Amino acid sequence: MKKLLLGLTLFCCVSAQAQKNSLLDQAFWQGKPDVNSVKAEIEKGANPAQLNGSSFDPVVMAINADAPNETIKFLLVQPGNEVTKLTHDGRTYLHWAANRGNDEILSYLLSKGINVGLKDSHGVTALTFAAGSGQPNTKIYDLLLAKGTNLKTDVNGSGANALLLAIASDKDFKLTDYFVSKGLDLKSTDADGLNAFGYVARSGNIEALKALLAKGIPVDQAALITASEGSRRGSNGIEVYQYLESLKIKPTYTNKEGRNVLHALVRKPKQNDIIAHFITAGVDVNQADVDGNTPLMYAAASNRDTAVLALLLPKVKNINQVNTKGLSALAMAVNSNSPAVVAYLLAKGADLKTTDKDGNNLAYYLIQSYSSAEGGRGFAPGAPSKAEEFEGKLKLLQAKGFDLAAAQKNGNTLYHLAVAKGDLGLVKRVQDFKIDVNSPNKEGITPLHKAAMISKDDVMLKYLLSIGAKKEAKTSFDESAFDLASENESLTKGNVSLSFLK
């Protein structure tokens, strides 16, 4: 028995090692491992081609950590790591090598015949990706140009060329001068007419802005808005806005997307004094952009500081205003913000009965907010998990008398919505609301039918059956759960036995 237990323990350890995959651990790459170190991890069961939940793989992690080039090249010849492989945001290894300024790996990838014109999911090539981060190694651009990249036609989704994308990070204008030497014009504009002055305003570099004016680049009226958007390096201080206003840029300026300076400011932390400055200057807090979103909506969706809401609400004409999708500030807060923000909006009169244009109520957005993962983007260490915040928002809605058991306009119950998220823990939580697990939506689909259509294994299906789901129920097209599961490629490819559904 001891040998059996020891064997099971060893098996579990090996399985855990394979599941964890040390090659997807950032800490591993911080040590700049050599080829032998990587080989040792592969021998232990680490997968050199596995993508994590964000579609980063060991090759990308190695490139971004500036691992030795021999290590990166070793990974590139492992099965599953072909040079055209798509990773996070649809980017190839060419994007990552260019962005890091690794001209040796870039040259290696180009020697394999990779297409320099490949764009990621944001419409960005390797060259514009590198320029957007201000990559100063001009060998990167030389290599890409030698393979046919055209600087004048290679622009991002906003029509910005490499010069415009790089200039905000180019403190001494050396990279800008390089692009000018290659044929780009300092007076370039993007598809919306935003010029170099507007792009530099994002960085808040006042001296660079003055230098551009000295070079004959005119003030861009949208500069206040681009300054409010900031850069990856952080937000701008009040002195940047004061300088731009001294150039006669109107604080109330609205761009082509219908956004004013508040739309971006309210999403960022520690901008309250600047927000107050622009409210005092007459910037409209009720201005809706092309998607119908107001500053209040953006704040409710993403800013966890209720003091921002306190600044906006005295000027807000309608706290229940909705955007083009029919979402109110409260719905956005329930979907993606904290219980404190939801509570604040409810206390100020936000409507519990709000529904979007598809008829989805707050319960729909509460379910979307759930995640069993700890923390998340924007969460500080030790902050409540999304599951804990879900419970907090749930209690607030219940305290106000919200009916969580009511179906959505299309007939979907919380069971349908929980199953669609594929989270068994959430399905179990929904049980407490005493909803009929066999209730069909308007298409005749029950939660069991939905699970049969989307499940990757049999766990959700078997659980639903255990709490009373009827396998004999038929859809409007006379399909049973067995019929639908039989058409589910994930189940068939996984050789999952479906006999329990017959």
TrEMBL record:
Secretion signal span: 1-18
Pfam families attached to this UniProt entry: Ank_2 (PF12796), Ank_4 (PF13637)
Keyword Repeat: yes
ANK repeats: 89-121, 122-156, 291-324, 325-357, 410-442, 443-476
Record Gene3D superfamilies: Ankyrin repeat-containing domain
Keywords: ANK repeat, Repeat, Signal
InterPro entries hit by this protein: Ankyrin_rpt (IPR002110), Ankyrin_rpt-contain_sf (IPR036770)
Claim: Repeat is one of the keywords in the record: yes
Name this protein carries in UniProt: Ankyrin
